[in-house]
Amino acid sequence: MHESTTVSPLPDSLLAQCQLPAYQHSLANLAARLHGNASCPPLAHPALGDLEDCSTVILLLIDGMGCAQLNALVPGGWLQQQQCATLSSVFPSTTTAAITTLMTGLPPSQHSLLAWHVWAPEAGCIATPLPLRSHWASGEVPDSDTLAARLYSQPSALQGQGRQQYVLQPQYIADSHYSRHHGGQAQHLPWRSYDELFASLGTLAATPQRKFVYAYIPDLDSLMHGKGTTHPKAQALLARLQQHCAELAATLPASCKLVITADHGQIDIPPERLLFLNDYPTLATLLRQPLSGEPRAAICHVKPGVAQAFRTAFEHTLGHIAWCLPAEDVIAYGWFGPPPHHPLLAERAGDFVLLMKDNWGLLHMVNNDEKRPPLLGNHGGLSAAEMQVPLIVCG
Q1: Over 80: is that where the pLDDT of 367 sits?
Q2: d(CA 275, CA 37)
């Protein structure tokens, strides 16, 4: 990548379709308020006015529960009734980027874990940071401990601040490399059922010590990936979670603040609109490695000297499904967040970001004979359905 002297104006069609991340009223600003750091302006909202005076602060994150999901699945329900604001997710609007922001207090521009698939030049591979593994490698991949030490470069915000820290995650991810690093000094309380999770939250809320509690529920997002955003099972699941939340809120002591939000929303991708770059060999051969990023915001690293050829070929072949944006412009637009930028941000962001239009998606299989995954629900892009998340505050 080279320094850009000018930034290209955004296409009118993009501005008409997309909700750009707003790092004055986003998850990054909520994180700044919760953790007391100054990487972004702390979120100012009357419902959070007495946050510092509360003995217990609980952040409950329901993965994939965007405002669009509240509207579609539990319209007029308790969660919507308690919603006090709409926040912007980060970019890409995806779990890796957003949860790392909430656990480090830093926007993606500063923690650099941008997406499900992240180019990690310090390890010579495309890695998946959450379930730590190598997706594609240019050489020998370091062992998992070394990969984690290289990939997770920013410390957890869950430490100090005069509060005991707790992390409540499903048992199957509670002891992962990602969870151990980003949990900081927190005490981990794995849960196996919703009854166990909400009982633990009620117990923690009732104890007098000053504490911060981070609780994470991944199931709605996982279900919508496989079945779509309006499937009856998604509706039943969110209704069940809503009931648990309402029952918990009703028992909270006056000294406790419950904050409920999501990392992103989701949008449905019709099967015929989920394309694979493997089917476009003229484009694929111009890349020096497979796509990283997300199906809704793919990151391209092109071979030396062919950047303009790639952009021209992409716009001719697949310009109807995505905007091909120079990555240096995307950084300059501030979509990943404000400076100071992580030293590897430019390398991670590659040469171009393919931002999907409408309800398109684009994947790139490392092995052509690998089974192609169905992804009915997805996220990572800049549609309102993906970017808008609720801020729900009780207490």
Answers
A1: yes
A2: 41
Question: 52 lies in a domain?
Answer: yes
Q: Within this chain, do residues 150 and 31 fall inside the same structural domain, yes or no?
A: yes
**Secondary structure (3-state) at 217:** strand
The predicted structure's pLDDT at residue 4? 46
CA–CA dist 314, 193 (Å, integer)? 46
| Residues listed for the chain | 395
pLDDT tens readout for residues 228-253? 999 999 999 999 999 999 999 999 99
**The dihedral sign for the CA sequence 178, 184, 185, 189:** negative
Q: Is 336 left (phi over 0), alpha (psi -120 to 50) or beta?
A: alpha
CATH number of residue 260's parent domain: 3.40.720.10
The span from the first CA to the last CA of the chain, in angstroms, equals: 48
Q: Which two tokens stand for residue 173?
A: 């991810």
Q: Phi-psi category of 350—alpha, beta or left, where left has phi over 0 and alpha has psi -120 to 50?
A: left
> Do 120 and 240 lie in a common domain?
yes
Cβ neighbours around 122 below 10 Å, total: 16
Q: Is 126 left (phi over 0), alpha (psi -120 to 50) or beta?
A: beta
Using one digit for the tens of pLDDT, what is the confidence trace for 173-212? 999 999 999 999 999 999 999 999 999 999 999 999 999 9
Model confidence at 157, in pLDDT bands (50, 70, 90)? very high
Verify that 284 and 369 share a domain, yes or no: yes
Q: Which residue has the tokens 């998850």?
A: 27
Q: How far is CA 358 from the centre of its chain?
A: 20
Whether residue 225 sits in one domain with residue 313: no
Instruction: Output the pTM of the full model.
Output: 0.96
Mapped onto helix, strand or coil, the DSSP state of residue 66 is: coil
d(CA 134, CA 118): 10
The domain in which residue 170 lies consists of 27-268+383-394
Phi, psi dihedrals of residue 371, rounded to the nearest 5°: -65, 130
The DSSP element (H or E) to which 224 belongs, if any, is: helix 219-227
* Cα separation, 111 vs 100, whole angstroms: 7
